[in-house]
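Run log, item B.
One chain of 485 residues. Sequence copied directly from the ordering sheet:
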Amino acid sequence: MMRTGADYLSSLNDGRVVLVDGQQVDDVTTHPAFAPVAATIAEMFDLAADPAQNMQYTAPETGATANRTFGIPRSRDELRLRREAIETWARHTHGWVGRSPDHVGTFLASFAAHPEVFAGEGRDLSANVTAFHRRLLDENLYVSYAIIPPQVSRATTASGWEGEFLQAGVVRETDEGIIVRGSQMLATGAAIADEVFVSCIKPLGPDDSDFAVSFGVPVATEGLKLYCRRPYAPAATSSFDYPLTSRYDEPDALVVFDDVLVPWDRVFVDRDIVGVRRQFFETGAHVLGNWQAQIRFATKLKFIAGVARRVTQVNGVDKIPSVQEKLGELAAVVSGVESAVLAAEYTAEPDASGQWLPGRQALYGSMGLQSETYPRVLAILRDLVGGGVLQLPSSVHDLTSSLTAKDIQHYVQSPGVPSEERIKLFKLAWDIVGSEFAGRHQQYEMFYAGAPFVVKGAYTYRNYAYDDALEDVAGFLQSYKLEDA
């Protein structure tokens, strides 16, 4: 039997150090900041444990039943089935859980597809990677990650900062493992995850070897602390007033290591500047992991498009040409992301290990526009809802109080649409465009894969078939001459 939601929740009360508002959280499964999204993750594990959802397969690494989203796709058909499994989870959250367990799980699958990348000159750590992946398959784990240095200074790397080990790095090594000190961001979901994968995806300088590490440890590891951003769920007065915030508010956290012992069998890269880059870009992890992200993103955009369409129906403006133009633009934007997901799958090819990877051009093309796509989608929804998201009752109590209910039902309604239905819809729209949860999601989606200039320059530009385009242009230019004019 695969791990269920109840199994997952029962494992979280393990002594982990999660800090909010200057206090340590006793139990994340009951704390108002974490309990709602933990319950959502539990529902996702229950879905995966249900054979009817087609999220299960027999993992060749273990010979046992495992979660398909954690597997290495070894054929075009397996890649398709993986996409469908990811969509099953994404549809359950409507795309609003950005770092669901299938995200980092996908990176770890690609790591395991290329263990040779982790056979460094000093220590051969390849067996650690494959063993960690087998645990992921066997135990159906939720792994978060922290792979970005803290924003101490963006002008220099960690070796140039004043103060020792502000970024997570190796202080010393022992026979048992490496001792890690410092911090790393942005561990989305770590407070409710089983384990956290720690590394650095940003380029490091020649003097940064101490920070060129990669490892995975339980969240409850001694000396590991999570400093969470302000949670929004506790301020959500009800699921009626904040339908998204009250379900999907993922905690983001700064991970702090107070001389944490990381055993050797949990280390993947040890002070190897080249190795930390290779793990992401020579294993296929960056491609397969970000394809999962685009599948989730497409699901989310489709949901927002549905909200926009329903708003125009309720307001009775969906037959107006200018409104249809807005809806058409929205459809075009969302269709572009959906199409890129499928195009990447269609152009997929196997790598040297037999792992099937989505086509880079389609994938990175979509990612290159994500920082513009999401704000544009929100802007269209803002235009369509107008002041309707402001002319709303202060809370659900205005619909139930004998003092206010009669007026609310009479004045806040639409033809053929009862007051409660209209208010629910516009409260949902506000949680998409105007609440704190909404603001966090806009920032999150804009910087999901890194700073936009990095995504466009390092990924989109380099993975576009410009050589083919140049050859086409050169051939055309050679087809006519000055003397032919």
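Observations after the first pass:
- The two ends are 76 Å apart (CA to CA).
- The chain has a mean pLDDT of 96.
Flagged for discussion on Thursday.
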